[in-house]
C-alpha cells in the first residue's frame, strides 16, 4: 500500500473558547478523491487551511507528502492547488502583498506574467475633483449599477434619471480572464473584478435612486440628448461643490 499523501494526527484547532477541530485523525491515500460536507461553521475551511499550513494547529501534527505542512519544500508546494471561496487570512493584504504571499508557494512563479497583469491596474493620475453628474436608468445594471452604488455612497455625484436596473448591493461583474491549463487542457474563466460593498443598502433588492428624478418619455426613446441629458447640463452649469448643494431644475 502506498504511503498516505495527507496525514493528520490528533489535530486540534480553537478560536478563543470555540473548538473547531478536536483531536482529528485523518489520512488520504494517493489517487483518493474526497469531498467535505457540512453546515456553515462546521470547520471545513479551518480543516483545509490547517492541512495546507495556512493555520497553525493548537495541537497535533499535519504532514503532506511525508513533510510537515508548515515546512514544505518547493517540489511539494508545486503539487498543491488551493482556491478559497473567501478567507479572512487575506482581508488586510494589499494586492502586492497578496501576490508576494502566493509567490512563496510556487517555485516556478511567472514574474513577467504577473507584472504584466498588475500594470493594467496601475494608479492613474490626475484624479478628477470637479462636478460630476451621473445619468442612470433602468438599463444601468451589472458593472454600471455597482459603479453607481459606489458613487452614491461616497457622495461623488448627482444622479439624474430613474432608478438603476441593478441592485444597490453590487454583484460580480462580467470581467474575467480565460485560461487553459497546460497539462489537463481544462478551461477556466477566472473573475478579475468583484465589488464587495461594505455599506448597508438603501433598500433591499433595489437600485440607486436619482436625486433628480427624470422619468423617460416615450417620444424621446433612442434620443441620446433627452430630457435627462438636458437636466444634467443644467446641473453642471450650477456653482456647487458638494452634490448635496445641487438644485434639480423644475
Brief characterization of the structure:
The chain is of the alpha/beta class and 250 residues long. 20% of the residues lie in helices and 20% in strands.
Task: Label this structure with key terms.
250 residues, alpha/beta, Rossmann fold, 2-enoyl-CoA Hydratase, Chain A, domain 1, 3 domains, 9 strands, 20% helix, 20% strand
Architecture blueprint of SSEs:
Layout: E1 6-15, E2 18-28, H1 44-51, E3 59-64, E4 67-68, H2 74-77, H3 95-103, H4 111-118, E5 133-136, H5 143-153, E6 158-161, E7 176-180, E8 187-191, E9 212-213, H6 227-237
**Contiguous runs where pLDDT drops below 50 for at least 5 residues:** none
Tell me, briefly, the overall form: elongated
Rg: 26 Å
> Termini separation (Å)?
82 Å
As for the number of domains, it is 3
Integer average pLDDT: 83
What sequence of helices (H) and strands (E) makes up the elements? EEHEEHHHEHEEEEH
